[in-house]
Amino acid sequence: MGDWSLLSRILEQVHQHSTAVGKVWLTVLFVFRMLVLGAAAESAWGDEQSGFSCNTRQPGCETVCYDRAFPVSHVRLWVLQVVFVSTPSLVFVAHALRSVRRQQEAPAGGAPGRQGDKAQIRGALLGTYVCCVLARSALELGFLAAQYLLYGIFLSPVYRCERAPCPTPTDCFVSRPTEKNVFVAFMAAVSGVSLLLGLAELCYLGRRRLCPPTPEAQAPSPDAWPHHPQNQDLHVTV
To answer: How far is residue 166's CA from residue 169's CA, in Å, rounded to a whole number?
Structure first.
């Protein structure tokens, strides 16, 4: 498995500028995808080709059948999924950093929404964030559909191959199908959770957009408090 350090450092910036639901999505991405892919999934598919055997000695038949059964490795497909699903968030981070830089370069009093180095998700940045969530949800669906079209729901222990140069229909056997199906189900469940988090984040953003919190609703106005100048004078003299 390749080095995830660069992508991890970039996604730390995504975490800094994300909503609360977005932070949960990033946790799912880090823990249940990147760590599982690096620690366990690759070892389960380490013998994918060497453990694939067919009941024939015809030269080239086993290679052709393997290519037919596994046009793309599951692990490589999941790595591509992580990269593509993370890409919209990188676009949002670029926009957020540009917004923060513009706030820092603005004259004093010209950046009412500034809070340190964190950009406020509103205006054009809110539109970018919504597009980011929609794009990554669409990519999740796309990769789930691609996995289903390539392999179906689960791997079968026996694959029947009828491609040339195999002289007759040939039975081929997949190595450790049960273990691999566990990872297939797990990664599909993680994709489903990611889709639900995307839907929850859209609802969260829509609620904040329609019902933004107002400072007046959080604290009473000082003008509404009763004034008792005689009590204040008494307090001062004491």
So the answer is: 7
Residue 167 makes CB contacts below 8 A (sequence gap 6+) with: 56, 58, 61
Buried b (16+ CB within 10 A) or exposed e, 114-149: beeeebbbeeebeebbbebbebbbebbeebbeebee
pLDDT digits over 165-179, tens only?
Answer: 888 889 999 988 898
The pair of three-digit structure tokens given for residue 41, joined into one six-digit string: 């999934």
Q: Which residue has the tokens 């995307």?
A: 198
CB 178 within 8 A of CB 73: no
Rounded to 10°, the helix 124-151/74-105 angle is 180
5-16 vs 74-105: helix crossing angle, rounded to 10: 50
Question: What is the Cα–Cα distance from 231 to 236, expressed in whole angstroms?
Answer: 9
Q: Which two tokens stand for residue 86?
A: 């993370």
pLDDT tens, 31-58? 788 888 877 777 778 778 888 889 888 8
Residues β-bridged to residue 183: none
Sheet with 158-161: strands ordered across:
53-54, 170-173, 158-161
Half-sphere exposure at residue 69, Cβ-oriented, CA atoms within 13 angstroms: 28
The answer to whether the peptide bond before residue 212 is cis (omega within 30 degrees of 0) is no
Domains of the chain plus CATH, in order, are 5-237 (1.20.1440.80)
Cβ count within 10 A of residue 53: 14
